[in-house]
Amino acid sequence: MLVNATAMLQAAVKGHYGIAAFNTNDLEWTRSILLAAEELQAPVIIQCTAGAASWQQGFKVVKDVVEDLVDYMNITVPVAMHLDHGSYEDCFKAIDAGFTSIMYDGSHEPTFEMNLERTAEIVKLCHGKGISVEAEVGGIGGVEDGVASSGELADPDECKAIADLGVDFLACGIGNIHGLYPDDWAGLSMDRLAEIKAKTGDLPLVLHGGTGIPTAMVQEAIDNGIAKINVNTDLQVAMAKATWDFVDSGEAKKGKNYDPRKLLKPGFDAIVARAKELIVDFGCDGKGWA
Length: 290
Ligand code: 13P
Known about the structure:
The chain is of the alpha/beta class.
């Protein structure tokens, strides 16, 4: 059974650990994430952007695949099916498809007032259906599925205004960027995180762009209120590297390794291994039903 993400994230805030939120691209990706989470008894959030959902033929297919795999694989840890960076319109589609958690990313709306208004509407709708809601203040740098942002430090007063709408967790820019970090990246602003935390209390905070941040820095952010860490590129790179190595070694062309179950296996094994490392780094291993 899929759950919403509220209880697991509130437990993470109390227990000072972070929940991994991994983006999925297809059935094998989802299966690899579930294998890692179950093996380490970690609660997990599987999330999907509208772009990745469209690649998989729609939100309903993504949610059905996650739900059926949880059932078929006898997954015992809590699993939430979350919309990542939903536009206002995407939110309604994902809700209809049965997602248990929704991110409405209003940070790209023309005004903050519109972000507030629409977030309030989505919160009301979702809470009536038992669905958890993530909102965003302050664009996250980099390019996420064609949505670019110059990146900024979120305004703590705006974070408070959105938090007061009753959102379940909040993404706030603290110098993080989607994708690979440039060599001259300044790092996360722990000062800004502390200012936001001071205004938002026990509300779980979300760190987007979880790829490539030094582990100690992520752990410091977790100590200071980050409860959900979004990771996408990291698993893509792990998958691609293992596949390239398999091809470069010449193994991919031997025997029946044209069979996709053989050709893609090293890549999917690499996703399981890397997801497990990240789960341990974030401290959510063994927290299945914390
Ligand atoms: P990365 O691709 O940088 O890991 O970011 C993922 C993310 O924040 C999804 O919302």
